[in-house]
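Entry 14: structure prediction run for Geranylgeranyl pyrophosphate synthase. Input pasted below.
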Amino acid sequence: MSVRDGTIDELRAAVGLQIADEELLRTLVAGLENVEEILREVASSDVAAIDEAARHLVDAGGKRFRPMFTLLAAQFGKDGSGEAVITAAAAVELVHLATLYHDDVMDEATMRRGAPSVNARWDNSVAILTGDYLFAHASRLVADLGTDAARIIAETFGELVTGQMRETVGPRDGEDPVEHYLSVIGQKTGSLIATAGRFGGMFSGAEPEHVEALHRFGEIVGTAFQISDDIIDIASPSDTSGKSQGTDLREGVRTLPMHYALSHDPDPRLVTLLSGPLADDALVEEALDLLRRSGGLERTRETLADYARRAQEELAALPASAAREACESVADYLVARTH
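Run finished. Output tokens:
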């Protein structure tokens, strides 16, 4: 069994990817193996401190959804396994890994993927510089793909940073918090997955209209995954979701169900509880109970269903194939995983 066979199983469980076609499955497995080789090569350095810190998250694994989607999008072109596709897939994952190093510093996280985060194991400076190191190597890889690719990844960097900045400062006076939140997660999460789909189509030689459909699908799906995570953090018992509940409440992060719950005749007690981070377990449970009984969860589920519908509409523009069916299964899973 290949190491990447395990990753495909993780993808099926984590993102609802269903692949019945054995040829497509073998193509994705082989492509992910090649991506992994590039990631390990890039993470190595003659400088021991860089080598250890950069390999920390690469070796920890993860779902590898972004490179997988790049490879899946490439199946709509004539050269779905070409070197440029593999390079692009590795580049988008490096960008994602770099953002995780930076996110952990901003969130003061202590764990990442079941291991101590770099900022906790070393310090914030090491985590920030390691993230910068991976950003640099992602840019180097993309530079080999041409000026269009370099421009696209630069624009994606801009979206990621803008989304993070807007989340940090919050909505402007008079700005709808719900619209602000959806826009922010579109930038922070949707933009890179959109680029993954765009790169896969571009570098496999897919038709321009198919590249654009993959780009839009990626943005919608990326945003929708965050919305579904928001629901699970409140609605699903820890022993069901495999994640501790109320993480966002403990960090003082307002997610979509919270914004909806506060947008119309909110419970005064809930307003108080959502005014800052909650350290006490009893207060977290109280807030979870109030959120579950509010209309916020149901409105969030309606919004998620709308995103899933829009994602399926984008896929309708693509030719029927095993790859399209695999993408459709991800869109379906977005809603199913929250029930």
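Notes: The mean pLDDT is 90. Will compare against the previous run tomorrow.
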